[in-house]
Structure formats: C-alpha cells, structure tokens
Design the sequence.
C-alpha cells in the first residue's frame, strides 16, 4: 500500500493514464472481495424482459389447443415459486449475518499483534477463500448431522440451515479480507495521531480506525451480498427446496417442452429485480465515498 | 509404492481414516482421473478464455459497429448471470437442440462445460484486456510512430506489453475465479474432482474423509495458481506503478 502512495504522489511513471491506476486499484479491491463487482443497469432488465417475452411466445407457438396460456401457467406456479424465493432470501440474510459477524472477528484477528492469532486467521481466511463455494456447501451439507441432542432434547437441523452455514463460510473469509483491506487502507498518520493523543491500541481501533473503515467496507460488503443472493441457487444442487429446485419441479410437473425459457427467464427476472437496486446503490455509494478518500 | 498403499490400508484398519483413494486400485484411478479432469478443464478454459478475451478486445476496438454491439451484449449477458444458469442454458437448452443422428447428444457434457466456462471467463477477459489497452496513452503510441515503428510493431512491442502488465492483476483474479467455478460442472455430471469424490463417498461411505481430501486438494490447487500468478505479477510489474 505504501509504495502505491509514493508512486501516486511523486509521479514516477507519468506516461500511464489514471485509467491504469484505477484498474489496478479495482483489481486489488476485487481481490479482497473475492468476486467481481456486479454492474447491473436498466438495459439488463430490458434484455431479460425481452428474453422472457420470447420464451412466452415460443411456448404459446408450440402449445396445443387444450393447453392453458403461458401466463395462466406462470400465474398458477407463482405462489410456489415466491415461497422458494423467500427461502433464498432467508438463506442469504442468515448467511450474510453469520458470515459478517465471523468475518469481522477473523478480520480483526488478521491484524492482531500476536503472531499465532495473526497467522491462524490469515490461514483460515485464505483457506476458505481458495476453496470453491460449491465444495464448502457440500462440506456443510454432508458433514453436519441432521439432528443434535442437547441435554436429552433432540433438535433437528433442516438442510437449509446447513446450506446457510455452507454459504456463510466463504462470506466469512471474504468479509475478513474486506475488513483487513479497509483497516490497512487507513493512512498510518491516523494511527500515529491517535497514539500521540494517548489512545491505546483497542481504543484507536474502535474509536478512530474502524468508524472510518465502515464507509470503505460498505460498497464491497453490499456487492458481496448481491453475489451471495445469486449464489443461493447453488443450494438447489444439494436439494434444498429453494426457487431453482421448485422451478425444476414445476417444469417436470407441467411436462411441456417449450416452457423452459419462459420459466427460467421468469426466475432470472425475480433475481434481477431484487439485486438491481442493491447493485445501483453500491455504485452510488462507491462514487460518493471515492471523492473524499 | 506398495509399501505406501499398505500403510494407508493399515491407517484405515487402525484409526478408521479410510483413504480408499490410496489403497484401492479402482478408487485410486477414479480419483486420479477426476483430479486430471479438473486440471484439464481449468487449463483448457484458462487458455480459451484468454483467447476469447484477446479476440473480443480486438473486435471492440474495430470500426464495425455491429461487431462491437454483439461483443457488448455478449459481455453483459455473461457477466451478469450466474454461471450455473449459463451452464444449464448451454447443456439443457442448446444441447437438447443439437441431437446426433442416433438421437444421442452431438456434443458431450465435458465439451459443453468447457464452452460454457470459457465464455463465462472470456466475457470478463474482454473487458480486462480492453481497459488495459485503453490505459496505454495515445501519446505513447504516437511516440512509437514518430520513432519509426509501424502500426503493427508499435502494437506488438509497445502497447500490448504495457497493456498486459496493467491487466495482469485483474486477469489473475478472474482466472482464479474460473478455476473455482469449474466445480459447477458437477451439475451436468462432468467427472471432475467433486463429482468423482461424490461417487467415491457414496460407494465407500467415507464422506468426512473424502470431504477433507477434496477441500485440501482444491486449496492446494488454487493456492498454487494464486502463488504462481502473484509471483509472475510481481516479476513483470511496471516499476513505480501500482503496489
């Protein structure tokens, strides 16, 4: 980080445009986040609607006289799909909450002064960041018991809870890296100023450094949430009754070949409507905070 | 070698850590083929996505408006939809349309996985290479021309080397992401490491052990890639630029 500021201020290589610098910075940010930035705009929504209408048109053209219209069919399945979607959202909320809390701890442990804590947290973060999401999901799905008995009381663990934990693990690792990156991006002078005002390390972190980090952490954190929401459909591979699974069931129950495009674009449209405001808001926050950094 | 296999058999008998992938001939070859399939998928997809990226970036700089629009929509479509959906679209959507004469599939699931993942990562690569080329100032190109470089020479010797160095960090992120995404090929039954492991643990009932083996294998595989790419990045970085 420090050389970067040097390069920026002294202008060692003025031949490269600010664009190159921006690109490098964006690449580092994405590296901390572990996932590319979502850049949704309204034209994507238009394209999805077009795909959806094409799908409906194809189905209508292929249907026999006895078949109900495509919109009736979609409307019939909508309550079920909506229930699946709520499930996706519930999984995403909980995975995000668990992942964020655990990730905050891990992120702070990464800047700990105790070498074993620091090294352990570094290893844990990179271990979970390097493992693919699907493998972690499988890990939790198959290794957690389907019920636990605590003091004679049997508590069942439904599969969606396990999927939530499986998705929370990569979120945790990415949040940890976001926290570490944000803390390290605060200029050293802030630490020095706090030390000269007789703040101890804990006070400096909580009262001076962390409040400044929140602004920087918010955009990548929201982007991570949007990506997590899209990743909740992975739970369909391990058989959780979320929207994708229910769509597949609905399709097999209807057993009409032309429905595929209409149904899947309908599902995509739902996810788009949910993720679009988040993605736009992230871009706006990023632009606003970029100025006064 | 037999000694090692026997040691793993002994490990199973004495501790219950059942690593059939070492002492069982059949499981060993299965797991090895799954591991190789993951490596193969990764390597082929990395190479072809970089090719797609270069070609796409070149088309985006062309004067043909239609070509630019097509590439633009390709990027938008593949950047903003989940890769699982793309995989399903290729395999179930396009795959069911392309039937061979006998009624069997014309293109195998492995090929579809390669095509789908390459296009997925390629969409990101197009943008990365394009912005890398744009980040090289026009004045550099003009300076090269005034020194008597031809246009092609200036591109090959000055613009592209600089552009590549600028794009490398972003490219690395994307390629690491691509290797992690190859696990999705499980969903269309490509016999890669995750799929083969799931077959092994359902035959041998050693789910926890295989899970750990799988996690460690991916950690090592991705870790090696990350390490090599970062070393390369540091080795060829533009002095005084970036961190």
Sequence:
């Amino acid at each position: 980080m420090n050389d970067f500021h040097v390069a920026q201020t002294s202008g060692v290589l003025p031949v490269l445009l600010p664009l190159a610098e921006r690109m490098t910075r964006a690449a580092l940010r994405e590296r901390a986040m572990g996932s590319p930035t979502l850049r949704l705009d309204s034209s994507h929504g238009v394209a999805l609607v077009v795909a959806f209408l094409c799908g409906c048109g194809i189905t209508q053209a292929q249907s026999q006289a006895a078949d109900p219209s495509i919109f009736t069919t979609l409307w019939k399945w909508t309550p079920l799909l909506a229930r699946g979607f709520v499930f996706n959202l519930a999984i995403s909320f909980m995975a995000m909450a668990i992942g964020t809390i655990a990730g905050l701890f891990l992120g702070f442990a990464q800047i700990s002064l105790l070498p074993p804590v620091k090294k352990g947290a570094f290893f844990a973060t990179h271990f979970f960041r390097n493992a693919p999401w699907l493998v972690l999901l499988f890990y939790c799905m198959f290794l957690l018991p389907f019920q636990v008995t605590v003091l004679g009381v049997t508590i069942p663990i439904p599969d969606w809870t396990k999927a939530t934990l499986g998705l929370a693990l990569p979120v945790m690792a990415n949040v940890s890296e976001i926290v570490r990156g944000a803390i390290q991006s605060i200029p050293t002078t802030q630490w020095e100023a706090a030390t000269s005002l007789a703040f101890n390390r804990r006070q400096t972190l909580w009262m001076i450094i962390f409040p400044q980090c929140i602004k920087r952490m918010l955009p990548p954190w929201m982007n991570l949430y949007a990506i997590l929401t899209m990743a909740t459909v992975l739970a369909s591979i391990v058989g959780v009754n979320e929207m994708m699974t229910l769509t597949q069931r609905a399709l097999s129950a209807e057993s009409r070949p032309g429905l595929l495009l209409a149904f899947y674009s309908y599902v995509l449209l739902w996810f788009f409507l949910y993720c679009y405001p988040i993605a736009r808001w992230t871009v706006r926050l990023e632009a606003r905070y970029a100025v006064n950094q | 070698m037999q000694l090692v296999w026997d040691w793993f058999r002994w490990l199973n008998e004495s501790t219950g850590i059942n690593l059939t992938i070492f002492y069982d001939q059949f499981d060993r070859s299965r797991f090895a083929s799954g591991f190789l399939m993951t490596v193969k998928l990764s390597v082929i997809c990395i190479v072809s996505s970089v090719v797609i990226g270069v070609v796409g970036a070149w088309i985006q700089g062309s004067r043909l408006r239609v070509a630019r629009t097509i590439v633009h929509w390709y990027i938008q479509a593949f950047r903003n939809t989940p890769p699982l959906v793309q995989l399903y679209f290729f395999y179930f959507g396009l795959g069911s349309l392309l039937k061979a004469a006998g009624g069997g599939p014309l293109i195998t699931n492995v090929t579809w996985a390669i095509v789908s993942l390459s296009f997925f990562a390629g969409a990101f690569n197009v943008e990365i290479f394009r912005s890398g080329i744009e980040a090289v100032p026009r004045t550099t190109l003009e300076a090269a021309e005034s020194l008597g470089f031809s246009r092609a020479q200036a591109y090959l010797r000055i613009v592209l080397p600089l552009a590549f160095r600028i794009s490398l960090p972003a490219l690395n992120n994307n390629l690491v992401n691509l290797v992690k995404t190859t696990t999705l090929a499980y969903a269309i039954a490509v016999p890669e490491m995750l799929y083969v492991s799931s077959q092994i643990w359902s035959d041998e009932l050693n789910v926890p052990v295989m899970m750990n083996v799988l996690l460690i294998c991916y950690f090592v595989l991705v870790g090696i890639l990350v390490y090599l790419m970062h070393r390369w990045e540091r080795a060829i970085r533009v002095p005084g630029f970036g961190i």
Notes: The two ends of chain B are 46 Å apart (CA to CA). The longest helix of chain B spans residues 25-60. Chain B has one domain: 2-236. Chain B has a mean pLDDT of 85.
